Amino acid sequence: MTDLARPDRAEVLEMLAAFGQRAAEDVPDELGSLELTWLIAEFEQRYGIEPDLDDEAFEAVRTVDDAVAVFRAAVLAAGGGAVDGGTADTPADATGAAVTAGAAGAARP
């Protein structure tokens, strides 16, 4: 089993802060498609994992929290991350499909 820590909100904000050379506290919660594309590439580079995002799932990622959920699911699906009982938004036994579907359900029109 891979010993990868699941990314948390602070790490995702840190990755986004590097895009545009800004402080993490200056990163807005809403993500544009360019920021999301860059964030996915950064995640793939750090974790060596490609999140399974079809067009619909990609469109559903609109906030930092959405991105955190998708990245955590990708790490769990790859067999990484310590099982800590999970959190309210990402249960320990969640699969990538379940969390991605949850993120898709949270999409705003």
Task: Summarize it.
With 109 residues, the protein is an all-alpha fold. The protein has helices at 9-18, 33-47, 55-60, 64-77, 96-105.
What does the secondary structure layout of this molecule look like, with pairings?
Layout: H1 9-18, H2 33-47, H3 55-60, H4 64-77, H5 96-105
Helix pairs in contact: 4-5
Unreliably modeled segments: 83-109
Cα(first) to Cα(last) distance is: 39 Å
Whole-number average pLDDT?
A: 78
Content-based structural category? mainly alpha
Radius of gyration from the alpha-carbon trace, in angstroms? 13 Å
Topology pattern, helix = H, strand = E: HHHHH
Estimate the global geometry from the Cα principal axes: globular
Q: What is the number of helical segments per DSSP (H or I, 4+ residues)? A: 5
As a percent range, the share of strand residues is: under 5%
Give the % helix.
40-55%
Find the count of extended strands (DSSP E, 2+ residues).
0
> Main β-sheet, in a few words?
none
Explain the overall architecture.
It is a single chain. The chain has helices at residues 9-18, 33-47, 55-60, 64-77, 96-105. It is mainly α and 109 residues long. The longest helix is centred in the middle third of the chain and has 15 residues, at 33-47. The model is unreliable at 83-109 (pLDDT under 50). α4 packs antiparallel against α5 (96-105). Helix content is 50%, strand content 0%. The protein has five helices and no strands.
